[in-house]
Amino acid sequence: MSNRLSGNEAVAYAMKQVNPDVMGAFPITPSTEIPEYFADYVANGEVDTEYVTVESEHSSMSVCIAAQAAGARSVSATSSCGLALMYELLYVAASCRLPITLACVNRALSGPININNDHSDSMGARDAGWIQIYAENNQEAYDNFLMAMPIGEHLSVRLPVMTCMDGFITSHAVENIELLETDAVRKFIGEYNPENYLLKKENPLAVGPYDVSPYYMEHKVLEAEAMKAAKARILEVAAEFEKISGRSYGLFEEYGMDDAELALVLIGSSAGTAKAAVDKLRENGVKAGLVKIRVFRPFPGEELAKALAGTRAVAVMDKSEGFSGSGGPLFAETRSALYDLKERPYLINIVYGLGGRDLKIEDIEKVFSRLANIAVTGETGPVYTHMGQRSKEGIA
Amino acid sequence: MIYAKDINEHTPWQDLTPGGEIYEPGTARAFNTGTWRTDTPVFHEEACKHCMLCVPFCPDSAIPVMKGKRLDFDYMHCKGCGICENVCPFPAITMVSGGVAR
Fold first, then answer.
1. Rounded mean pLDDT of A197-219?
2. Cα torsion for A255, A260, A265, A267, to the nearest 10°?
3. Do A203 and B1 touch (CB under 8 A)?
4. Is the pLDDT assigned to residue A394 strictly greater than 80?
5. CATH number for the domain formed by residue range(s) B32-102
6. Looking at this predicted complex, what is its ipTM?
7. A2-245, CATH topology level
8. Which of residues 14-73 of B touch A (CB under 8 A)?
9. Which end of chain B is more exposed for a tag (fewer CB within 10 A), N or C?
């Protein structure tokens, strides 16, 4: 069935179809609508969910952790500072191997305080042990949320999943999207049947016990192995999802990459703008391409290296400033992934779109013209630059 | 199912439980925390009146009781805090330096 929904509505509707056991609910712009819509479903008796209103995001994630450990499927939604306040618990959820699903509606992290979109919130949590899947548009936000539980809950994985979409751009814009029938969703998701859980009376369970040094490292290796195993499971679930939806997903999406000489790597809604620019450049004979990263954790390094192997010059566009002094987080991952190639493309990093700064087709075209120049001269110039800011110097 | 008794400090990561989950109760009993001790209480049975003041004060339940009488310390779990010596009204407990039980 087709419907006109905002990204937040789409995710709330996906949650309704899943009918989770528990929701830890706390509002923060721009994710507030998710618990708001869901509260309607609860009030109307359309779901069986225990809707727990709490005093902070630290508590909403704590509720999810406790509920999931007890054997219940739990969900939450947050943005920006809310995710930051969950920080400690994000690590607890992942290290306790509790497959919670969290909808992260990406918003700039203070400060200066700002409610608009960039990826600094979820990028800050990239090393917390959560699987991270990013959406380009409302359809993907809906689809990714539905795929999260079969991925995270699988025995080979058992990790929490964060599904991310761009604040306002995706969360509040209304688009036509295809929704699955609820029966099909329930069949796809299945029941949550963990092997061990706190409410299982046959064997009392301790979750999250103190780890002394002789055990801590071994448990971290187990967690790291689970994150590695998640890659195969993500693809398996995508294949199953394609059967019921007709929509195909990979670790990333390649657009015009078959014969691309110049390419972009980026995440989220900017991919729509980049695709328009690629189309325009292709009409003029420029061999432009785009890789839109969908899964950031686990990072598809080997696959990305393969996708970029035939290119001459690549711009990695980060929608968050990692303050490493040498480029954003996506750049660091991409550059590292390309190291194992015998012949590598030239690589530059452009940090853009912070705090809701717009990205236009012309901006992408400028990036491609910079890449074209690099491909010809072999001179990258400054590797790490920002784009879209007012400057006394010419804007890159 | 992996049981706590089958896990020790030589167990490879492949044989540990995800998240360090423990699937049975009371496993602290099997875990030697007595090595953390730097001082050690010594029980003088002849001076003990079995008044049972020391037992509830012990933060580690390291003073076993049987048939109304306290037994010698459970040195596998005693941390050597000295509270028992402090609350004992008789000269039945003395602390000595060092972690080795004697």
1. 93
2. -10
3. yes
4. no
5. 3.30.70.20
6. 0.89
7. Rossmann fold (3.40.50)
8. 16, 18-25, 27
9. C
